[in-house]
Amino acid sequence: DTDHFIAMMDRFKPYAKGYAGGTSNRKAIKGPAMEATRTPPHVYIQLHQEMSYMPDNPRALAFFCKQAPESGGETVICDMRGLLEQIPEHTRHKFENYGARYVRNLRSAKVDDWRAEPELRHATWQYWFDSESRDQISAQLEERGTHYRWNDDGSLTFWNSEPAVAMHPATGERLYFNQLNSQIQNAWTIGKERADMFERLYGDHTDRPYAVAFDNGDPVTEEDYLAVRELFEARKIAFQWRAGDVMLLDNKLTAHGRHPFTGERDVQVMLFD
After folding, report:
1. Calpha distance 117→123 (Å, rounded)
2. Low-confidence residues of the chain, pLDDT below 70?
3. Torsion angle, CA of 25/198/190/138, rounded to 10 degrees?
4. Which of 77, 253, 54 lies closest to 161, judged by CA?
5. What is the pTM of this model?
6. Rg of the Cα trace of the chain?
7. Residue 46: Cβ-neighbour burial (10 angstroms; 0-12, 13-18, 19+)
8. What's the chain look like in SS3?
9. What is the pLDDT of residues 29-68, one digit of tens each?
10. Which residue among 147, 197, 227, 234 sits deepest, i.e. has the most Cβ atoms within 10 Å of its Cβ?
11. pLDDT at position 24, please?
């Protein structure tokens, strides 16, 4: 159970920065153990490295399966060694030289407009940060080195500009390390119907829940996205969870994601320094 999971990982140092400003919809379970995600079961969570959109991120993470789903729900993984070198040169140049910009917008629970439609999954800052205090949230974002802006409509916009390539602290390897491909909202990540709906409702006039670009302002093109997606899909490993399984990952060497699933699924996660 969760207590055993926490005890098993007792010799690992918990991630000191916590999950403030994180992008996955998850809540704490007990101590350092959290839900893996509340993302709906039908969604394929793209392969990514945990919190690579932040200036500081976990060194490692562990997953614990308390209850396996009826079908699907694999926590897919991907070895990142050598992936950067396989990206076509034109696209690799952008990742290596431009870096990444991640922008989030959280609406206010006190403003009931079209963005509150459940289908949009445009979360409120009150829910995401589990707080009603703007000052408290501002302090958390400042402590994380995250830029932010409180908007006239009550929403909160915050963003980070980070390198898209990182050095492994132990091996010195240069590794693809970003979430441009997983945070982008396009026909492949959220479906054509949903992507068209976002374009129709948000357009260029309203801040979207997620927005990404290269840090020089260039968009992540379809060519850029598919070049990385194809490598991820060709390299990924999927295994069926069994109740009691634990998986420990090096966050820079290994990306992770989640296949869609049916039935009840209880997978928990802990982050480590």
Report:
1. 10
2. 21
3. -20
4. 54
5. 0.90
6. 18
7. buried
8. CHHHHHHHCCCCCECCCCCCCCCCCCCEEECCEEECCCCCCCCCEEEECCCCCCCCCCCEEEEEEEECCCEECCCCEEECCCHHHHCCHHHHHHHHHHCEEEEEEEECCCCCCHHHCHHHCCCEHHHHCCCCCHHHHHHHHHHCCCEEEECCCCCEEEEEEECCEEECCCCCCEEECCCHHHHCCCHHHHCHHHHHHHHHHCCCCCCCCEEEEECCCCCCCHHHHHHHHHHHHHHCECCCCCCCCEEEEECCCEEEEECCEECCCEEEEEEEC
9. 999 999 999 999 999 999 999 999 998 999 999 999 999 9
10. 227
11. 78
**Tokens 């990385």, residue located:** 228
Q: Nearest CA to 183 among 39, 72, 29?
A: 39
Give the angle subtended at the CA of 112 by the CAs of 106 and 115, to the nearest 5°.
50
Spatial contact of 155 and 106, defined as CB atoms under 8 Å apart: yes
What is residue 19's predicted lDDT score, i.e. its pLDDT? 79
